[in-house]
């Protein structure tokens, strides 16, 4: 586990300071895997490690949708190593303005749920392990609220 100085970084592309959260969710938006890295760690480097963790834990996983930051050798490596298809979801060139694509909206909705947790709204955590644990804790609280909500339509 890196020291606290290894958890901080600056991503020049996104102009983000601190850490980045990489997540894998299912089609319902439930968390399958999470990895927190310093912001200066590239998306593709983090995806190699996270994909190995998720593929080991979820053997039936066959298709992963990802955004354009996860292109390159990841596609071939995932297919050859894990028999896992990595489909890149990109917007077409003729789209104008801010458009969130339906497949990517599932992951964006997870990040919106995470931002409802006070500890995750800002980058308070000093250790990567505690940052990842807070994400799992927030998802457990979200799933508990969904289960406790009265379901309409049941007689």
TrEMBL record:
Annotated ranges, domain Transposase IS4-like: 6-143
Protein name: Transposase
InterPro entries linked to this entry: Transposase_11
Source species of the chain: Streptomyces mirabilis
């Amino acid at each position: 586990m890196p020291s606290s100085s290894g958890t901080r970084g600056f991503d020049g592309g996104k102009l983000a300071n601190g850490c980045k959260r990489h997540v894998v969710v299912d089609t319902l938006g439930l968390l399958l895997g999470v990895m927190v890295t310093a912001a200066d760690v590239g998306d593709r480097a983090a995806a190699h490690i996270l994909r190995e963790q998720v593929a080991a834990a979820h053997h039936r996983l066959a298709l992963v949708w990802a955004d354009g930051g996860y292109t390159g050798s990841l596609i071939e490596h995932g297919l050859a190593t894990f028999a896992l298809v990595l489909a890149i979801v990109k917007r077409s060139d003729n789209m104008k303005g801010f458009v969130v694509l339906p497949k990517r909206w599932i992951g964006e909705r997870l990040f919106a749920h995470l931002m409802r947790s006070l500890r995750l709204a800002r980058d308070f955590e000093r250790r990567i392990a505690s940052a990842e644990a807070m994400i799992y804790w927030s998802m457990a609280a979200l799933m508990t609220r969904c289960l406790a909500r009265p379901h309409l339509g049941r007689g």
